[in-house]
Fold:
Amino acid sequence: MSLPAAPPELGDLRRDGAPAAAPVEQRRGPASGPKPRLRVLDGLRIVAAVVVLSAHYVHPVIWGSRENRELFGPLATASRYGWLGVELFFMISGFVICMSAWGRPLGSYLRSRVVRLGPAYWFCALVTGAVMTVYAQFYGGNHPTPSQILTNLTMVQMPLNNPSLDPSYWTLWSEARFYLIFAIVAWKGLTYRRVMNFCWIWTVVSILAPTSGLPVLEALANQTYSPLFISGICFYLIRREGARVGEPWILLAMSWLLMQRYMTDIHGWNTRPGDKLSWAVCVAVVTFFYLVMAAVALGWLDRINWRWLSVAGAMSYPLYLLHQQVGVTLMEHWEGTVHPYVLILSMTCSMLLASWLVVKFVERPGSAALKRMLERRPARA
Structure:
């Protein structure tokens, strides 16, 4: 189990490619101008990140021989499904990536992805590698090789068959594949018809790819999670074009049907020994996410517009990147000497503080500097 998103996520919430501290712009109708920021998506991102964190911090692997349910009661049961926060991350990503690419040339779209994901990821990967190395020196255990750390900085360690420094990084490869294939339609310029055609084609390819005998096509199609990205795109089209446009709703229904089918495979990956997860609960949780995103698309949650959500949403990305490998390693070290609830609460607060520091001192200045570097033109030009 990852944990995904990251949301993971893990998409940028600005149409202009600025760091994610700024929330999403609203658009209602194809001809409308800028309106108040859509901060509800920032709030959903931090909720998804904390839900994923709970799945890892209440996981039995940390608590040794002690019975997980005896320690945490109902929290243990609920946290078993916390990995589903990744599904919400992927839907939000479909929404905001479509929005951020609208009206942009391809180069600007691609640069915005690098600016958004790069600085925080590189910093968090180096921190994770350093913590694992130092911990192994003092307390034993495995530590990453220099090659593993350097390969992780490329963010494509999975297709290179290189171990990830943090298990949660697997979601970044799903995100990267989405960005890559969406660049095809961004290259031509986004219109309602082109985006809908892209979503229909991706849906068909996702269905056919596993039996095509073409591993590259299967990898790009990302069959298991493509319905979630596509659903996010459809929700943005509804937000942009209005609820009366029927085609996105039809594709949403199709995507939901595919999602519930693939959920029979996904929930099996997260089954703990002797503790089978419920397919019905998994589908119910993701269906709830669909309803929440529909409410966002229809404008029903626009009143959730608190300014602090912008900062919370920005924190979700470094929180996702840092919380698992570093947090679980430290919790396993202190397990048995600190009360379980105190340990979970203190580690969660520590990770939230670390995430805020990364946003303030790494992501914002790093993204600004990287953006200036990528947009700099040769003197002759």
About this structure: The first strand starts at residue 24 and ends at 26. Residues 1-35 have pLDDT under 50 and may be disordered. The two ends are 49 Å apart (CA to CA). The first helix runs from residue 40 to 57.
